[in-house]
Amino acid sequence: MTSVSVRDRASTPRHYLMCRPSHFDVNYAINPWMDPAKPVDTALAVLQWETLYDLYRSLGHTVDLLEPVPGLPDMVFSANGATVVDGLVLGARFLNSERAAEAPAHAAWFRAHGYEVHVPQYVNEGEGDFAVTDSWILAGRGFRCTPEGHQEAQEFFGRPVISLELTDPRFYHLDTALAVLDGDEVMYYPEAFTPGSRAVLARLFPDALLVSKDDADVLGLNAVSDGLNVVLPEAAVKLAGDLRDRGYKPFPMDLSELLKGGGSVKCCTQELRP
Hints:
There is one protein chain. This protein is an alpha/beta fold. The chain has one domain (12-271): L-arginine/glycine Amidinotransferase, Chain A, CATH 3.75.10.10. It is built from 7 helices and 15 strands. It has helices spanning 42-58, 102-112, 147-157, 195-204, 213-216, 237-245, 256-259; strands at residues 15-18, 62-65, 82-85, 88-91, 117-118, 130-132, 137-141, 161-165, 178-182, 185-188, 209-210, 224-225, 229-233, 249-253, 270-271. Strands 2-1-15 form a 3-stranded mixed sheet, covered by helices on one side. Strands 3-4-5 form a 3-stranded mixed sheet, sandwiched between helices. A hairpin with a 4-residue loop joins strand 6 and strand 7. The protein is globular and about 45 Å long. It comes from Streptomyces violascens.
């Protein structure tokens, strides 16, 4: 085990934007996790979401709320609606028409709270495909976000954007295959990426935590870290142990109802970076 894996950890207060799943349902299928034939318990989804919301607040984080809009069942996945870096807001442009109206709803919230919003020309789905480390913005492509969207983000934020190609439709967003733990420390599932992208990740992050297929298959990488506390799906049992070995404190969460929509902890959590 490397020295980076056993160093002391410290949490940093974060600012999140979430959206209560008041209208959550699965009445269309735009990723392999979604099956409209399977019943959805919206009340249970709300209860699971509220447990996550309460946990963030108990850990000392600030959580703002985006008002859910009837007819937009995926708004609970608030991470997809924008990317905020250095106080700059890059809005989203969704690939699928079913989610298109979420982008202006997010933009309206940011404008109402004093932010200027850059409305993108090219497809990007917010933090679904953008992961921010200290040195880079990692950007997924292959299913949703486009290379042009990556270039647009680099020009807007003035930070280097590293494009990574996803190959498995189950890992349709970067945040299903990779998570930032702290600084330039990440964890990821190698088989979700092309060989070239795996080589880039290995070069940039030689001490990364590599995640097993079993943990990836339950969206264990759809996780949120504050530098010490890592909130992740409870089914990712081995991953929780691996995080403990590296000095992190895992907080397993049951978001099984929201998983029917193809999302979990990170999908529900947009970070507002000052």
